[in-house]
Amino acid sequence: MDLVKGKQLFYSLILLSITILVCGRFTPEQIDFYGKECNASQEDLQIAKEYKVPTSELGKCLMKCMISKLGMLNSDGTYNKTGTFEALKQYWQEWPIDKVELINNKCHSEASKASPDVIATCNYAFEVMACINIEAKTLGVL
Ligand SMILES: *[C@@H]1O[C@H](CO)[C@@H](O)[C@H](O)[C@H]1NC(C)=O
Ligand SMILES: *[C@@H]1O[C@H](CO)[C@@H](O)[C@H](O)[C@H]1NC(C)=O
Prior knowledge:
Blueprint: H1 3-22, H2 28-37, H3 42-49, H4 57-69, H5 81-91, H6 97-112, H7 116-119, H8 122-138
Helix pairs in contact: 1-8, 2-3, 4-8, 5-6, 6-8
This protein binds 2-acetamido-2-deoxy-beta-D-glucopyranose (2 copies).
One 2-acetamido-2-deoxy-beta-D-glucopyranose binds next to α5.
C-alpha cells in the first residue's frame, strides 16, 4: 500500500472509531468485555476508550478479534457477508437497508480480492473497517 492510501485509511479509521465510540455503539463496558475476550492489554483498552486508533500491530489484532466477535469475520478470518450485514444493521440502525447492502456488497467484493496471506494479517481487518467507512461516506450516511 502506498503512503497516501495508507494515510487515508488511517484517517478514515480514526473517524470511524470516533463515530463508533462517541455515538455509543461501544460502551466502555463492551470494550472491556470484548477486550477481555480478545486478551487485550490494559494499554490497548485505554487507547480504545480514549477514542484513539490502535496503530500497533497488537492494536490492529485487537480490532480484528473484536470484529470477529461481532460476527463480521469467519473463523478463517475471511469476510462474513451475512454476519457483516447483520452487524451493520444492528450498530447503524439509522442507515437505510439498501445502503447497508451496497456497502456490504462493495466491501465484500474488495475483501474477496485479498490473498490468503493478507487475510491472515490483522491489517486485513483494519482495511475491512476502512472500506466500510469509505463506502458509508461515499453514500452519505456517515
Ligand atoms: C486468550 O488467552 C487465553 C488463555 O491464555 C487463551 O485460551 C485464548 O485462546 C486467548 N484468546 C485469544 C482470542 O487470543
Ligand atoms: C457468518 O455469519 C452468519 C451470521 O452470523 C453465521 O450464521 C454463519 O455461520 C457465518 N459463516 C461462517 C462461514 O462462519
